[in-house]
Every structure is written in structure tokens, then in C-alpha cells.
Specification:
The structure is a single chain. Helices cover about 65% and strands about 0% of the residues. By secondary structure, the protein is an all-alpha fold. It has a domain of about 80 residues. It is rod-shaped and about 120 Å long.
Length: about 160
């Protein structure tokens, strides 16, 4: 039972660690999304827009993006940010639930260990045979005593019945 409990707690801790790492990664993406988008999409940065301008200040038709494309990009970005926000909220709820479970399991485990530690000295004290004086043998049982298979004395036999 202890091994199963320890295995369950280990699995729970591994899941909790993975959840924390993924929440940290999503948090990093959330905080740095503008810089990451600029690196991934060079056209979205002002320096890239300036790079495609010609000497007369006009942007070539193949390098320009339309307003519809820009709105589509904005909508997709907004949707992905909203989705990431929802995912983070769900992960935080899961993290809270798992943290509560780990706390409960830890409390149960500590209670079981303290109960086992308290019961252990009492069991060893009661299991020890009484100390015998050196050189003395324990008194032999009388042959008239009859014991059951469990070692409990049987009632005395009535006269004439055996």
C-alpha cells in the first residue's frame, strides 16, 4: 500500500512539475509576444516596412500588405492571445486543485507515519517475552491442562466426561 501511495505521489509531483513548466512557458510567451512576433514576422516591424520603401518613399505592390490582411492578422493574433489566456486560467485552476491534493496527501502520509511510529514501540514492548532469570527454565505446563488449537485453555472436563 505504501509503495502504491508513494508511486501515486511521485506521479502527481511529476504532473505538477510539467504543469508548472508549461505555465511558465505560456507566461513567457504572454509577456514577450510582441518581440517574438517581430522576430517571426519581419514585415510587422516598422524597420522592415522602411526597408521595402523605395527612394521616392513608395512601397512596391508585392511588398505591401492590404488592410484586410492586416485585420486578419490582428484577429488571428487576438484569438490566439485569448486562447492562451483561457489555457493559462485552466492550468492555474488545475495547479490549485493538484496543490490541494498534494497537501491533503502529505497530511495523510504524515498522520500515517506518526501513527505507525507511535504503534511501533508499543508493539515491540508487548511482543517481547518477560525477562527470565539467568539459568532458570520457564515452568513446564501441567499435562492436565488442555489447550485449544489457538492456545486458549479448554473448560475443565466434567466428572466422567472426557
Amino acid at each position: 500500500m505504501w509503495r502504491a501511495l508513494v508511486g501515486f505521489v511521485r506521479g502527481l509531483l511529476v504532473s505538477l512539475a510539467m504543469l508548472i513548466v508549461s505555465a511558465a512557458a505560456l507566461g513567457y510567451l504572454w509577456l514577450n509576444h510582441d518581440r517574438l512576433l517581430q522576430a517571426a514576422l519581419p514585415m510587422a516591424s516598422p524597420s522592415a516596412a522602411q526597408a521595402v520603401t523605395h527612394d521616392d518613399g513608395a512601397i512596391s505592390a508585392k511588398d505591401a500588405i492590404s488592410a484586410k490582411e492586416y485585420e486578419l492578422f490582428q484577429r488571428q493574433t487576438s484569438d490566439s492571445i485569448q486562447s492562451a489566456t483561457q489555457d493559462i486560467a485552466a492550468q492555474q485552476a488545475d495547479l490549485k486543485r493538484l496543490s490541494d491534493q498534494v497537501s491533503t496527501l502529505t497530511a495523510h502520509l504524515e498522520a500515517m507515519q506518526s501513527a505507525a511510529a507511535q504503534a511501533s514501540p508499543q508493539q515491540t514492548a508487548s511482543a517481547r517475552p518477560p525477562a527470565l532469570a539467568a539459568g532458570k527454565k520457564p515452568p513446564a505446563q501441567k499435562p492436565a491442562d488442555r489447550l485449544s488449537a489457538q492456545g486458549v485453555p479448554l473448560p475443565a472436563a466434567r466428572a466422567g466426561v472426557q
